[in-house]
Amino acid sequence: MESAARNISFKEKANKALGIVPEDAIISKSYLFVSFIALLVGGVLGLLQGLNRAGLLELPLWFNYYQVLTAHGILLILVFTAFFTIGYFYAVLSHTLDGLLPKVRKMAWIGFGLKIFGFVLAVIPIIMNEASVMFTFYPPLAAHPVFYIGLVFIVVGVWMCAFGSFIQVANWRKRNKGEHVPILSYFATGVFVLLFFGSVPVAIEVFMIIPWALGWVETINVMLSRTLFWAFGHTLVNIWYLTAISAWYVVVPKVIGGRRFSDTLTRLVIIMLVVLNIPGGFHHQIVDPGITESVKFLHVFMSLAIGFPSLMTAYAMFSVFEKTAKKKGGKGVFAWFKKLPWGDVRFLAPMIAMIAFIPGGAGGIAQSTNQLNQVAHNTMWVVGHFHLTLGTTAVLTFFGISYWLVPFISKRVLTPAINKLGVIQTIFWTVGMIFMAGAMHWVGLLGSPRRTSYTTYSDHATALGWDPYLFFLAIGGTLLMIGIIIQVYAVIHLMFFAPKGETEFPIAEVEENATKTPYWTERWGVIIVIMLLVIAMGYVIPLVEMIVNAPPGSPPYSPW
Amino acid sequence: MNQFIFGFLLLIFLALPPVAYLLESIMIVHMHMQMPLLVIAGFLMAIFFQNKFPQFFENWNHNGIPGILLFSIIMIYWMIPRAMDDALTFQTVELFKYISLPFLAGVPLRDSWQKISSKMKNAVIMIFTMIFFAMGWLYIKWPEQLCNNYLIIEQVTLGWGFLTMGVCMTIYLVYNGLVDPTAYERE
Ligand code: HEM
Ligand SMILES: [Cu+2]
């Protein structure tokens, strides 16, 4: 034990002295750069939509609402989050596993190239108004085939990065026999396992769609493709969640000067999220026909099972805050509240992210219920829900990470001025989201549909009643746009212009008297087989039904 | 002792008429959920018997082979379509299911699994993998109802359940064969 402790401190010293390997830094920098540019462009498009929904702006025919919406969705849900996650976790792998292997570095670059190439392919038909299918691209809406071919390249690029991470981790374990993979790299493993297995169903879907979009086959099984899409879409949600909580469990405790929560339980949460996640996809199809009620019932159970690790995370966070505050001499039930470094953006942003998850998670549980889902489904409520969960919980955590990660990989420092700017940006984001997501939730309950350009339905009274809320949506959207500009400025500044220096990669240690983590948590082969069994349990019944008793199928429709 | 209680409660729970009815109403759930859960109940309860009758297990299951054989026979018996029909038709057969799966499959499995070598374990998994592929093929391809109680679509679903489990076990075996734990773990 003693020698292990000495080892760690030696490694820490070495890392401090040398920082990140320049070749690895440039990988993460490139990924993060693309990510934040996508945020900027996606944000502008979001603002256009918000203004349109409020009736303040009519979009021209050559750049219509559904084109904008498709681009907004793909840029933010796919490009921004995926590039951020990969850039962040590759920095983690490099930092905690002694630098990337040359082979792995190459794979990260090939993955980068494939993704950018695929993205360009997908964007061309969107700009040409031949692919206004939204980010879900459900059949029977059919885009130009090039759009789907672009998606294939993106998926293959993601796989490259996933396998790169597996090679890196396996290699480290061979060099460090019997040791646990450092916790952040353990998170990375979980995320890349999900990225790989979650994108298999969507790859199958895309290979079903391509011949159909090309006209080689006449019809497509709509239910099947929706189901395959959500097996992926839902997994993506848990990838964001895992990425965000990696910072909550490991980085936030360090930033507030405490220690992290039980190592065993942290790893258990990761395993549970990986094993239980994929069949949760059915909660996006609660009102879909063609899935029997009993199967839907079983899947509500699956969805709510994910609630357990979430509640455990909430418990873990409060436990860490309390312990840290006690150590700093805080007294009373709410002492922890005053002892926290609210002025430090590296803490403030993820903290607000966590707080946003309380209403966000509650809304999620509510809409998993069959009856309530029938009220909320495809209304603006849902858009409010994911701007709160993804757009705030995940995204604000990503922003919080950027204030130390970008200077770390750029060998620069976070100046007090930029920290202050970060705090201001967090406030803009919070207030903007309260307005925008709040208005979206409310107007959704009043019946305003999602994915619908502004219309008053011939001045129908109900539709006119939505207008005041949609106006709040536009105000919130404007505040968010200011937030995005500040954020992107901060990232660019920290990447290229901030003063040179060494920034710490904040990783909290476990408590001194922590119990030993059982070794079986490292046996990913077994965890993956269990995960596959759970997937089989969730999918065999509905998929067989959908395929064997399939309706005639649908020809492609392109209504633009 | 805790484990025994959990196993026992699980067995009681599975025997509750509404639970049994729900699980048995879907063919694949009947075979791939209720039956394994019964085995797990026995697996959990095994501790009690091992502590109570150590001599019995020592005498009759000294090297683990008899136990694993008994387990396999019981499992294979319950994969026969006819057996499920019987269980739904005759109370006595249903009773036999609730006794045989926990006590004649679950208990010996636990006692044997600790005793047999890892080669033997892989052989057992391999045999079951092959059986699963064969059963999957049978249930998917057979053009008629194999059970009076279940429709063809349920039969096909069960077949795919067998195939996917077979695939999972194959992946496990390949992983086991390719990855050498001594390269990663200290003894
Ligand atoms: C300036 C900030 C933002 C504004 C003003 C904004 C506004 C909007 C609006 C008005 C909609 C469309 C509602 C509809 O007609 O259905 C929308 C959809 C969406 N937004 Fe945002 N948003 C912003 C930021 C974000 C962020 C940061 C993310 C995720 C990281 C995000 C993800 C999405 C997604 C996935 C959709 C759904 C697209 C679809 O239905 O196909 N948005 N946003
Ligand atoms: Cu979901």
Q: Short description, anyone?
A:
The complex is a heterodimer of chains A (560) and B (187). By secondary structure, chain A is an all-alpha fold. Helix content of chain A is 73%, strand content 0%.
Report on this structure.
The complex is a heterodimer of chains A (560) and B (187). Chain A has a single domain (2-548), classed as Cytochrome C Oxidase, Chain A, CATH 1.20.210.10. Mean pLDDT of chain A is 91; it is low at 1-7. With 560 residues, chain A is mostly helical. Chain A has 17 helices and no strands. With 187 residues, chain B is mostly helical. Chain B has one domain. In chain B, 81% of the residues lie in helices and 0% in strands. Chain B has helices at 2-15, 17-24, 27-52, 54-60, 65-77, 81-89, 91-113, 118-141, 152-178. Chain B is globular and about 50 Å long. Chain B starts with a helix and ends in a 9-residue tail after the last helix. The mean pLDDT of chain B is 92. At the A-B interface, helix 5 and helix 17 of A face helix 3 and helix 9 of B.
Secondary structure: elements and pairs:
The complex is a heterodimer of chains A (560) and B (187).
Chain A: H1 2-18, H2 22-53, H3 65-96, H4 102-127, H5 145-175, H6 183-213, H7 222-255, H8 263-277, H9 293-305, H10 307-327, H11 335-339, H12 345-367, H13 370-376, H14 380-410, H15 416-445, H16 461-497, H17 524-548
Helix pairs in contact in A: 2-3, 2-4, 2-16, 3-4, 3-5, 3-14, 4-5, 5-6, 6-7, 6-8, 7-8, 7-10, 7-12, 7-14, 8-10, 8-17, 12-14, 12-15, 14-15, 14-16, 15-16
Chain B: H1 2-15, H2 17-24, H3 27-52, H4 54-60, H5 65-77, H6 81-89, H7 91-113, H8 118-141, H9 152-178
Helix pairs in contact in B: 1-3, 3-7, 3-9, 5-7, 6-7, 8-9
Bound molecules: protoporphyrin IX containing FE and copper (II) ion (CU).
